[in-house]
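Predict both folds.
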Amino acid sequence: MESEREITDLQPRNATPRGTQPINLNHYATKKSVAESMLDIALFMSNAMRLKAVLEQGPSSDYYATLITLISISLLLQVVIGVLLVVIARLNLNEVEKQWRLNQLNNAVTTLVFFTVVINVFITAFGAHKTGFLATRAARNTS
């Protein structure tokens, strides 16, 4: 069985040439949250462009109401995720009394990201348009 020292010692030995600088887990978690926020912003912009395209096509397009609903839900979830990521980035992971709350918030964000990905898969599926050979063939058949 491993000793308690081996389990809790997360610091690499001789990892830096300057000596034994410990890893700042709070700094690591903050950088992770910032990177995740940037990806959330990119997806948010993509969904905003999709919403604009669907609105420009109008209600006569296939799956109009479905796409509006799915994109709106995705945008709302992304805003909630963004707010939670800001809260997570502001809390100090090194404070033991905040670690449980940070873990719960991180689990919530992970769950919301999963649902957002699933919703965006459906947005992509319902938003697909006929292109290439099949579109040309379909156009000829309707003429």
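Second protein follows, with its predicted structure tokens after the sequence.
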Amino acid sequence: MIVTMKLGQLAEFLGAAVRGAEEKEISGLATLQEAGPGQLTFLANPQYRKYLGETKAAAVLLKAADAEGYAGDALIVPDPYLAYARISHLFDPKPKAVAGVHPTAVVAADAQVDPSASVGAFAVIESGASIGADVTVGAHCFVGARCVIGEGGWLAPRVTLYHDVRIGKRVVIQSGAVLGGEGFGFANEKGVWQKIAQIGGVCIGDDVEIGVNTAIDRGALADTRIGNGVKLDNQIQIAHNVQVGDHTAMAACVGISGSTRIGKHCTIAGGVGMVGHIDVCDNVFVTGMTMVTRSITEPGAYSSGTAMQPAAEWRKSAARIRQLDDMSKRLQQLEKRLEAVTSSGQASSEG
């Protein structure tokens, strides 16, 4: 289904100023380089400004400063990328779910499914589960016993919720995600690992997004908790009893060990690892591939590891790193000798 809107309508939707033909029809979105007639584009990154004069787009979302000297039609907004984010939903071709339970779905007799909800083919809703208004449960999803999904939730096909997972309103969960799996808990008895029952649950706040193949383990005793507005990318591992504060975002392949607490408004870049039982305060940015081995108590940006360099240079650096301990010991010896010589010289001068 192709959606068509007039430039003036989009301006009204955004609260933007129109420069050009308000009646011009917009039927899609594209990048500056690829946009054609009938499509809207945006300029958010200064490095793409070189494409602005060449774009064939019907109109461009621009800041006022970037609009100077541009001859084409434009919508003037304070933040083009945010404006693009808002407009993108108007042109989203994702199929709309139809209310009702598919004939092949299996729904327990005592499960509660709101009449406005959609339950897809071969989905399973177990005993005591509650599915709220306007929720979409995709094909082949599994919703375990006593789970709760708040209104407006959207589960893509093949999402798995183990028992006692509680999900807030307007939560999006992508395919392959598993919530409420058993945490990695074992006690060692004379070299043999004895399993610890994971009897907590998982609690997800409102307006959370959880990416493809992400795993959030249930708590050992208390619940694993994900705050409101948290955004989780694909293939993230969140271990048992972790707590993530409101509006924190994590990129792909992050791994959070058990009982770690992460504050609000944090940004965790791709491939970051965190050890267990540490605290990360609010407003922390951790750069990609960083290994967080201790608590972070001050807001700011944190990094570890080494940046990319040519392989030959990296091998030399790695060799020097292996020599650091020996170099440190030699330096300490030299400092002691220097101190002895200095002390001897002072004694001679005083004599």
